[in-house]
Design a protein that fits this description.
Blueprint (H helix, E strand, L loop, with lengths): L2 H17 L20 H12 L7 H10 L2 H27 L1
Helix pairs in contact: 1-2
InterPro entries: METTL25
Length: 98
């Protein structure tokens, strides 16, 4: 999975929870991308089409979300996934040794 897509999916989840507060988060299962996307706007268009949602955000709103959840949050997310990947094999070995 591309690291940028992980950030895009997380940001999409925040937007969906803010724009559709009454819908349970489980309803927002996007799935995997078939081809790489270049920008968050492209990812947002693909995801809303796949989820069959009527969600229109202007460029200023998208920029506000990208600024709000900018580089600090992105680095934290990447660090979390790297740590998760590192620990996965360790936990698997511990389980197998048990």
């Amino acid at each position: 999975v591309q690291p940028e897509v992980l950030f895009y999916r997380s940001l999409l989840q925040v937007i969906l929870e803010e724009k559709f507060p009454s819908t349970p988060p489980v309803e927002f299962q996007v799935g995997r991308l078939r081809k790489p996307v270049g920008s968050f706007r492209e990812y947002l268009q693909w995801a809303t089409k796949k989820l069959k949602l009527n969600l229109v955000l202007i460029d200023d709103e998208i920029e506000a979300y990208l600024t709000r959840f900018g580089d600090d949050k992105r680095r934290n997310l990447y660090a979390f996934f790297q740590l998760r990947l590192l620990l996965a094999s360790l936990v698997e070995h511990i389980i197998l040794l048990d």
